Amino acid sequence: MYPFRRHIDHTYLDEVYGGERDIITMMMGVFLSDSVPSWQSVGSLLASNDFVAAGQVVHRIKPSFTMVGLQDFHEPVQALEHALKQGIASSVILDLHKLIDEELALIIPQIEAYLSEES
Questions:
Q1: Which long-range contacts (CB under 8 A, 24 or more apart) does 74-77 make?
Q2: For residue 1, what are the CA distances in angstroms to 75, 95, 99?
Q3: Of 30, 28, 22, 26, which is closest to residue 8 (Cα–Cα)?
Q4: Quick one: CA dihedral 21, 27, 18, 109, positive or negative?
Q5: pTM, whole model, 2 decimals?
Q6: How far apart, in Å, are the Cα atoms of 44 and each of 4, 41, 77?
Q7: What is the DSSP letter of 4?
Q8: Assuming Cys at both sites, which of 17, 45, 97, 116 could form a disulfide with 54, CB separation 3.0 to 4.6 Å?
């Protein structure tokens, strides 16, 4: 459905941030401390059928995936946001959420490893 490379695009990050490791490290730290917990709240909002609030959270954190070199997440996260805003069938929404959630679980340890190497 959506192709995931399952790794952080460090080349992209170096290009975007001019090789400034401090900025990359800061962005990854913010992603883990803000975006990941916000993403986790989407699951709870979906479980309580609060699709409006879930859509707002997804919209807010959508850019953060690209900002940490996870361009593969852009299209599915955008599709989830669209599905939430358009009232698409809940099965589609739940499938998209599950896909993104599973892929994110594979990426978080890579971000944590990067941060531990940089400290």
A1: 75/2, 76/1, 76/2, 76/100, 76/103
A2: 11, 11, 10
A3: 28
A4: positive
A5: 0.92
A6: 24, 5, 17
A7: -
A8: 45
